[in-house]
Amino acid sequence: MNSRWCVFALLLGLSGPVSAADAVIIFDPNAIGAWLIMLGIAFLLAEAMLPSYGVIGLGGILTFVVGSVILMNADRPGFSPPAPLLIGLALVSTVLLIVLLIHALRTRPKQAVSGDAGLLGSVTPITSIQTDNTCRGWVRLQGEQWQVHSKTPLQSGQPVRVVARKGLMLEVAAADAAPQGE
Length: 182
Hints:
By secondary structure, the chain is of the alpha+beta class. The protein contains 5 helices and 5 strands; from the N terminus they run αααααβββββ.
């Protein structure tokens, strides 16, 4: 099952009973604070499952802290969590969110890996040579078979560097030769 639907079902499941409880006691600070804490935890769980780059996690931390403050400032006696515990949980959640964001940003690709930008400069061996013209042949690059042309004769198995693309034909040079423009 898709994780987005699981998160949606979790949020509905958490908000349903709390909404019903809030209908009976409309402005009870303890119920609102508890609901915000549960919603914040649900947002933090959703952050772990969805690619939102910290937006949902930041909202979860904020709702968790606001719910905690409401619980601590409640006029009536009841469940009131200790302040150091809430501050510690908020700080730990923030640090974990920052670490996850840094890790996610490091895993993003830095270079284009498709199209002309991914082809130019690639080194690959010649798979076969045309029998009538030794300056033309075939290579396998990025999972596709490409026809290549070189200014010098090619040999089967020779590593070549892609220097240009003209339609479906790749211009290549020997891999040990300097690329054009240098």
